Amino acid sequence: MKSLKCAAYSDGLKIIEVESTFSRGLPGFSIVGLAGASIKESAERVKAALLALNFSFPAQKITINLSPSDLPKSGSHFDLAIALLIALQKSPNLDKIFVFGELGLDGSIKSTANLFSILLFLSTSVSRAKVLVPHEIAQKASMIPNLEIYGVSNLKEAINFFQDDEFASSCVFKNSHPLFQNVIDINGESYVPNQNFELDFSDVLGQSRAKRACLIAAVGMHNIIFEGSPGCGKSMCAKRLVYILPPQSLSEILNTAAYRSLSLQDSEFSAIRVFRAPHHTSTKSSIFGGGSSVAKIGEAALANAGVLFFDEFVHFPKQIIESLREPLEDHKIHISRVNSKITYDTKFLFAAALNPCPCGNLLSQELNCRCSENEIKNYKSRLSEPILDRMDLYLQMEEVSKDDRSDITSKQMSDLVLKAFKFQKMRGQAELNGKLSDADIAKFCLCDDVAKEILNTAVSRYHLSQRAIKKVLKVARSIADLEQSKLIQKAHILEALSFRARS
């Protein structure tokens, strides 16, 4: 029995062993192992490609098994592995390399829509994997760190690759993405800093408190709500958040590109974290993922490690707003369908913008609000207490003034965030402050005696829930990190409390 390695994406990356046996019996060719329709069809493509090379099929029964056999599989990228196992019955060491590619009837090897995403997930799962891919994708695939890429154009070259070591050496592709050449080392791990500030906080005039809130939110990836009159800069601040977030690790960049590739979008590597802003008319399945039979990725998962922004928050359907509870609390989203069950990470910074009332003038000192008390009450009631409780920072924006000036740039804010990020990492913290578990909160969010007293008083006075207490501690931890303080102090707790939503 011979075998080759392949891979499939189903609730995460799965390594697939493509095995072959040649046994006595009536000549035949069968594929087993819960193979989908696209794989069953590969039998005809493989036959045609081998016949194009004048290959003589043995007078035996050929059985191809895709192991593990209890995992449903689909995709035409198994074609090349199946053809090679039939053509190379006597070649050794087939199992030391991953093989991917769809076969044309003339023996040409083609890429598939999801192949690049599989390679990205493979790079985060297997160390220094050797991979044989179609020539058309080899150049791009060679930019993925942790993979050794070889490219071939047709089945004849693929066969020669395993039979001729000199030819195999000529098939290697060595190319590195410029992004991965500019890394910084923090506590033994490599990170890619962002140097692009296309949207700059210097464009936001005034709003010093809003910028302070954005700075704190960026340090810990804290969820934030901007409330204010139309045109005061809510969306401007939210869209600039992504440029000042902490640097991404190599694995975060690869995972982001892989998720984008799953949605058949451009999967170029970028030092800027992802920014997703679905419209309030978007469907629930487009935001959280879904589909009739296959579980497709949604905006919440695509925003992982970046920013998910809901503009005009209260205009989103109630069902969508309430469905945010799971991804905001557990940092995961589970999608179950008949043929697939998938879990995606959702460790994003959630940002939302809303007006204080239907007409937007409630907080204005110059314009009159035209809304009745009932209209304002109904407008506010669209956001339930459980949703507001999951927000780390609730900010009321200042009114626009003719005296507003620019006072800080995104580069300056990014430098402050990077300094705080290094401070977090040097104390051995794996997650950013906004995503800390209960155990990590007890370990890293340590207060001095005065800060504890202030927090206890706030708990009694404002009837804070356990979740709200943890949110205050995590925000205070980020404020302390900006000041390089080992312990959370009184001023840090007071500032964190000042950003709590007022009922």
From TrEMBL:
Molecular function (Gene Ontology), one example: ATP binding
Matches recorded under InterPro entries: CHLI-like, Mg_chelat-rel, Mg_chelat-rel_C, Mg_chelatse_chII-like_cat_dom, P-loop_NTPase, Ribosomal_Su5_D2-typ_SF, Ribsml_uS5_D2-typ_fold_subgr
Leader sequence segment: none
UniProt domain Magnesium chelatase ChlI-like catalytic: residue ranges: 200-403
Pfam family, one: Mg_chelatase
Domain Mg chelatase-related protein C-terminal: residue ranges: 409-500
Protein name: YifB family Mg chelatase-like AAA ATPase
Native organism: Campylobacter californiensis
Lineage: Bacteria, Pseudomonadati, Campylobacterota, Epsilonproteobacteria, Campylobacterales
